[in-house]
Write a structure and sequence with these properties.
By secondary structure, the chain is of the alpha+beta class. The protein folds into two domains: 12-124, Phosphorylase Kinase, domain 1 (2-Layer Sandwich), CATH 3.30.200; 129-352, Alpha-Beta Complex (Aminoglycoside 3'-phosphotransferase, Chain: A, domain 2), CATH 3.90.1200. The chain has helices at residues 12-15, 23-34, 72-88, 137-154, 186-202, 248-259, 266-278, 285-312, 317-320, 324-335, 339-352; strands at 39-43, 49-54, 60-65, 97-98, 107-110, 116-123, 128-129, 212-215, 224-226, 234-237, 244-247. Helix 4 crosses helix 7, helix 7 (266-278) packs parallel to helix 11 (339-352) and helix 8 (285-312) packs across helix 11. Residues 1-7 have low confidence and may be disordered.
């Protein structure tokens, strides 16, 4: 299949294929830069080359060898953010940066293919992905509260790369229009177009007036880890790789889009999240009215971006689009509830601001 030429839809970080660094080279990097003799196990990543490093005593670390298209300043931002959160609120269960022998939070090297890439090592968070565990209202409440805590910790964080262009940033969501012609089903295409129109009408005009800061921007069920035996207990928060300076509302909208999961009542799932979030952070009437629109737009992006990447890299089509059917199902279940009813329920959840 002929590759589609680059456009404004995807940033360089997603237009560059994830090229794994050989396992022996990953082990060499761990030994030379961290003084660790470990066995490396490759883990799939959307854009990076990731390895789980296992020491003889069973201690595990994550070695992240970043996409060659990632700006070194962006790599630095992610490392500094992790260190900042650890310093401000060490109770947040995010991974801890492991410094190199030289005391650096990350470093750069030239890979075998000649590309220059950033490297960061972090502790390996315990638990399993929330998506693979049983979900509950209490668990979603705690996800919302954790998001609120993280936003409070990041409120005092700044970095010169925070306004960089990233594909998964809702600020650029209307660019998804460029992907619509790739959807052959006219009904699917129309549904996506309507969502983009709504986002452009309701959120774009007020976007610059919304409260903004550096946000995680990828609070999804793969990045939230829970205890294997008591899944209502959150044990880890991983992957700060999509961080960007954006409205805090978007952080909540992203989380809401994923917390829908397989729940028959998707609005109640979002309400659980909002109740937890409100135990930590204020949410204005204006913002809560827009959470629904932001969440739907994230669902649209979850359909459009994988579709576009599959056209760029057809050999990875199955991996990119494996979640598409479930996302369409989530959108269908949302559509079954009148929008006005859904927003009124979200407002009520916001007013409750309940505690656990």
């Amino acid at each position: 299949m002929k590759k589609i030429s680059k456009t404004g839809v995807l940033g360089a970080e997603l237009e560059t294929a994830s090229t794994p660094v050989p396992r022996d080279q990953a082990q060499r990097l761990a030994r030379d830069h961290y003084g660790l003799s470990a066995r490396a196990e490759w883990l799939w990543g959307e854009k990076d080359s990731n390895y789980r490093l296992m020491l003889e005593d069973g201690t595990a670390y994550l070695l992240k060898i970043l996409n060659p298209a990632e700006d070194p300043l962006v790599t630095s931002m992610h490392s500094m953010a992790l260190l900042h959160v650890e310093g401000v609120d060490p109770g947040i269960p995010c991974q801890r940066v492991v410094h190199t022998r030289d005391g650096a939070a990350d470093f750069r090297f030239v890979a075998g293919d000649g590309s220059e890439r950033g490297v960061r090592m972090v502790t390996f968070a315990p638990g399993v992905a929330q998506r693979t565990a049983p979900q509950s209202p209490l668990q979603r409440w705690r996800v919302g509260a954790l998001l609120g805590r993280l936003q409070k910790a990041l409120k005092s964080f700044s970095h010169e790369a925070a306004s960089h262009r990233i594909t998964w940033d809702l600020k650029h969501a209307i660019g998804m229009r460029e992907v619509l012609p790739t959807f052959a089903d006219i009904h699917q295409r129309k549904r996506l177009e309507n969502a983009i129109d709504e986002f452009e009408t309701m959120i774009v005009p007020v976007m610059d007036s919304l409260q903004a800061q550096v946000i995680h921007n990828d609070f999804n069920m793969e990045n939230i880890l829970v205890d294997t035996t008591t899944p209502d207990t959150i044990t880890g928060l991983i992957d700060f790789g999509d961080m960007v300076h954006a409205p805090t509302l978007f952080d909540l909208g992203v989380a809401a889009a994923y917390q829908i999961g397989d729940e028959p009542d998707p609005v109640e799932a979002i309400c659980d999240l909002i109740r937890g979030y409100r135990s930590e952070c204020f949410l204005s009437d204006t913002e809560v009215d827009l959470v629904y629109t932001a969440a739907v737009m994230r669902l649209v992006m979850r359909l459009c971006i994988p579709k576009w990447r599959a056209r760029l890299f057809p050999e990875h089509t199955k991996r990119f689009t494996t979640q598409s059917a479930s996302v369409w199902s989530q959108l269908t279940r949302l559509d079954a509830i009148p929008r006005t009813v859904a927003i009124e329920r979200l407002r009520a959840a916001n007013r409750q601001g309940s505690r656990e």
